[in-house]
Amino acid sequence: MENTSFIELGKMQRILLLIISFALAVVLFFMKIGLDSDKPLDILARNSLEPEVALSNGLPTIIEFYADWCEACQAMANSILSAKESYQDQINIILLNVDNPKWLYLIDKYEVTGIPQLNLFDQNGVIKGKYIGLKNEDELSQLADALLYKKSLPNIFKSNNKAESVSIIKNKKIVVSNVEPRSHS
After folding, report:
1. Domains plus CATH for the chain?
2. Is 8 exposed, middle or buried (0-12, 13-18, 19+ CB in 10 A)?
3. Which active-site residues does the annotation give?
4. 76: which residues sit within 8 A by CB, 6+ positions away?
5. How far is CA 33 from CA 19, 28, 36, 68, in A?
6. Which of 17, 51, 77, 163 could form a Cys-Cys staple with 183, CB 3.0–4.6 A?
7. Tens-place pLDDT, residues 49-107
8. Using one digit for the tens of pLDDT, what is the confidence trace for 47-63?
9. Mean pLDDT in residue range 27-37
10. What angle do CA 87, 93, 99 make, to 5 degrees?
């Protein structure tokens, strides 16, 4: 026969244990918020308009489909943040996490096949193009300027032979270049 003994805690000990547990939970919660809150992807996603609002407010819109685990998305985050600050009252820049089931209908609608994927819309909410792959600050400015000044979208490709694709809508026809749909570069 096993001998098990239980230690009964007194009323004060139980209250003290409860207070310590609660304090520890609060500290861990605020540490988690503090650690994650300054990541550019998190800042951008939290401050993004709802896609329907952005596509109907009369401003050109760039929607980036991203994931927290995507290295290219993380590498591009500071450039996207800079573009958002530069074009803040002229262009909507929206970030949608592909791992959030809330955005599944848009992932399907816009045929997201690789990330980061940028979908570009004119001021009327009409899609003008789609780019898959890492973009630097200069390339993002070229895309934003093309939308803002109603110019043709540029063909932006990397010279380092990394996979990338671009789809540009011209005369209601999709022109696709250099397609490797599972690109994460």
Report:
1. 40-177 (3.40.30.10)
2. exposed
3. 70, 73
4. 64, 116, 134, 135, 136
5. 21, 9, 5, 15
6. 163
7. 999 999 999 999 999 999 999 999 999 999 999 999 999 899 999 999 999 999 999 99
8. 899 999 999 999 999 99
9. 64
10. 155
